[in-house]
Design brief:
- It comes from Paenibacillus konkukensis.
- This is Polymer-forming cytoskeletal protein.
- The protein has 242 residues and is an all-beta fold.
- It has no helices and 16 strands.
- The chain has a domain of 154 residues.
- The protein has a 16-stranded parallel β-sheet that branches.
- It is elongated and about 60 Å long.
Length: 242
């Protein structure tokens, strides 16, 4: 993106601006951007709204933001607070503390979230680390998927090379997506990977090479190639070696 000759856009206090191309966009307070934004660095502290799409090399969100279009960040998107994206989201790395909602699909290299993530479509990344909870409307896929549940998690399907799901022993903190007192479980139709370790998971089918079904799991069917271990309290309806 060629932004070397573009100016900066700064909103301090309260204000609005049209969209366009900029070097840096900085909002401190309350700001509205009325169309698409294309910049090198985007940062907001407070509350902001983009009535269009956002494209940047880096973006930092402190507070809350609503983006009515798609988001494309070529490097890192940092979220500290609440981010709502109506369209698709793409980035190299997402570092989130708080809640992130994506109305479309999410795609990146690294997803590292402490808090909640809600994706209506698919969520795909090389590495997915979640400490908190998630709700994925489609497929959650990654090379490594590492989940520590502080509240319920849900996906239609999960696929990865190494999948680890554990339940935190701590009391859950505020959940922005699901009932506050719901049990901390992962629910999925199908979970498939090379190496799988699951706790407190409810699934129709778990399929992989090396599978460990830990405490609190309710699985209808387990299909494994090399090894399968189970906690004595786990409920498994059918086990098949491939």
């Amino acid at each position: 993106m060629e932004n070397g000759n573009e100016q900066d856009l700064v909103i301090a206090g309260s204000g609005s601006s049209g969209g366009g191309r900029f070097r840096q966009v900085r909002i401190d307070g309350y700001g509205k951007l009325l169309s698409d934004i294309d910049c090198v660095e985007f940062g907001t502290n407070g509350k902001s709204e983009v009535r269009g799409s956002l494209q940047a090399e880096k973006a930092s969100i402190n507070g809350s933001i609503r983006i009515h279009g798609a988001v494309r960040i070529s490097d890192t998107l940092e979220v500290n607070g609440e981010t709502k994206i109506d369209g698709d989201a793409g980035f190299r790395q997402l570092k989130g503390k708080g809640s992130t909602t994506v109305g479309g699909s999410l795609n990146g290299e690294i997803v590292d979230v402490e808090g909640g993530i809600n994706v209506e479509g698919d969520c795909e990344a090389e590495t997915v680390i979640v400490q908190g909870g998630f709700r994925i409307g489609g497929l959650l896929s990654g090379g490594i998927i590492d989940v520590t549940m502080y509240w319920p998690c849900q996906a239609e399907e999960i696929g990865g090379e190494k999948i680890m799901v554990r339940r935190s022993g701590l009391k859950s903190f505020l959940n922005p997506f699901l009932p506050k007192f719901a049990s901390k479980q992962l629910k999925a139709d199908t979970i498939e990977g090379d190496e799988i370790y699951l706790e407190h998971t409810v699934a129709q089918t778990v399929r992989g090479n090396r599978i460990t079904i830990g405490p609190g799991c309710v699985i209808q069917r387990v299909e494994y190639k090399h090894s399968m271990d189970r906690d004595k309290g786990a409920q498994i309806n059918e086990i098949k070696q491939l």
